[in-house]
Every structure is written in structure tokens, then in C-alpha cells.
């Protein structure tokens, strides 16, 4: 089998951690007899310095024929405002209608969870965030702008089609995992938007009799996630609630250095995008100390998406055993460099 991967390492530590993820990908490709054809894209702040633009004008056409996009991180605020460097990411998500943002939070052995005192085995959940509409549709406006009667109106849009497809995505995932789904709602205070979410959960749940589903008001859900993370399997939420829940869940599982993510659309034949949750980390960029785990686990999610499940598991297990053996980068209290840590992971394959 042959897969075409677009590799957009990007800025700061993005390029460094992506390079390490590629070392793992090449190693498992050999062992599992598939081939990766990489298109390495030199986009980002360096491209901007050379050409005046972060990505070429036809960047979406360049990405489209690939089976997946592996992204590092973008952003270099000292030189360009974030909206300029991050705009291509937003356009990728929209053009390829990547409506599901998938963020696993898996507490690995050897990683302390300061917030909950939990240990490995207790936290293994996935947050699914609706990525295409909801509270972030950018609709609204001002009344009496600049006066003391100023009013800001920010509208959320929740469509039956948009909510139903993210709920079905979450049910499908729960079915493959621990058969439990929790939906974030707030229908006690928002009597249109989340009543639609509640109704659709009631409508769709009977299609998945093997999955136990429930809803929790998002404020209580955030609290319960800290108190009882072991009770959760798949959590599904609107764009705004998902934004909050994914950050908290990521921290529960050890923080930014470890958190992978997927942006995907299972129905359409567009490339999905796999990326660490973290950004370009200008404060540690160029020092060779970034934790490559989030990028490596994102590459494993990509392999699973492509159908190379055994290879994906192999990467995940080698990350788990490397951390369990006490090998750590500085963000987790260790001393290893980015490259040294990846060397240990390759040895544990
Ligand atoms: P950040 O995620 O880059 O860094 C936050 C903190 O976490 C920093 O102290 C950093 O050193 C640390 N950190 C992050 N990843 C790490 C890793 N793998 N290993 C060790 N430490 C790590 O967020 P920040 O500083 O707010 O943003 C920096 C730039 O990245 C901005 O331009 C921002 O817009 C952009 N950004 C891009 C994202 C993307 O490409 N999807 C996501 C988040 C931010
Ligand atoms: Mg966020």
C-alpha cells in the first residue's frame, strides 16, 4: 500500500517535532510493509520571508490530492500577527469540511496528573469538538458602537445537519471504544441551541443501542472531568464547549507536549489533518528541547485513519513504554532533547 502525505511542519518547534514524527513513520512503514510518499512543504514564516506570503496562492489545490496532511505548528508572532499565519489552517479546515476535531486524552504511565492525582489507566477518553459551526460562525455586529450604549451581538448557528453529523461521528467512535458517550449541553440556560442538541441526542441514540449515552451541562461536565475522569469515554461538544473541554482534557493527560489531534470528515474524500495541539512555542524554538510526543501520537492517529491500525498501535505502545521507563523531555521534568527522546522511542518499537 502507498499513501501520499502532505507534510506541513510550519514554524518554531512545529518543524522540529514533525521531523521526529517522520522518523517514527518511516520506521513502522518498513516493518508493516506500506509506503509513504511525502510532499514536504516549506510553508510558514520562512516562506513568508522569501516570498512575502505564508503559503502559495494555490495551497489548497496542492494539498487536495493527498491522503492526509501532517501538520506541525504555525505562528511566529514576533514577525507576523497570528491571524496571518493561522489563516491557512482555518482555510484548510473549511475547504476540506473537517467538521470533527478529535482529541484523545490518554494518561500514560510515568506521566503525573497534578490536577487529579490520577495515574495511568485512569484517564483514557476522547473529546470530539464540532469544528464547523456553532458559536464560532463569526456572525454578529455592533449597536451604538463606541458610545456608552454600545452593544455587541454574537450569534451562534447550530444546524440539524451539523449537530447530527457530529453526534453520529461520536457514537461511531464510542462504539469502537468503551461504548459510552457524554454530550455537553447547556439547555437549562440556552433554550434554542442546546435544546436542538438534546433533541438530536434523543433522536439518534436509538440507532446505537450498544452505546450508553447521557448529557451533562457543560459547567458540571468540566467539574466532573476533574473529579472523575475515569468515568468518561467519548465526550461530544459544540465548537465553544469543545474548545474548553479539549484544553482541560489535554491538561489532565499531561499537558501540551503530549496532546495529539485530528481534524477530519469521514464522509468526504478530502484529506484529514493531523497535528499536535500545541503551537510553535517561540520560547523554546531552536533549542532542541521540545517534546515530540504530541506530534508522534498525531502521526499514529494518521496511520489509524489510513487503516494501518497495527502500525499506529505500535507507535503508541512504544511511546507508552518509553515514558514508563522514565525517559522524559524537560517539560515532563526530564533532561532528554527532542532527538534523544525520539531515539529512545525508536529503540522501544
Ligand atoms: P504554544 O502551544 O506554542 O506554547 C505554550 C507553552 O507550552 C510554551 O511555554 C511552550 O514552550 C510550551 N510547549 C508547547 N508545546 C511544547 C512541546 N511540544 N514541548 C515542550 N513544551 C511545549 O502556545 P503559544 O505560546 O500561546 O503560541 C505560540 C504560537 O503558536 C502563536 O503564534 C500561536 O498563535 C500559535 N499556535 C498555533 C497552533 C497551531 O498551529 N495549531 C495552536 C496553538 C498556538
Ligand atoms: Mg483552544
TrEMBL record:
Ranges that cross the membrane: none
Cofactor: Mn(2+); Mg(2+)
EC number: 4.1.1.73
Protein's name in the database: Tartrate decarboxylase
UniProt KW keywords: Lyase, Manganese, Metal-binding, NAD, Oxidoreductase
An example Gene Ontology molecular-function term: magnesium ion binding
Domain Isopropylmalate dehydrogenase-like: 4-345
Cited SMART domains: Iso_dh
PROSITE patterns: IDH_IMDH
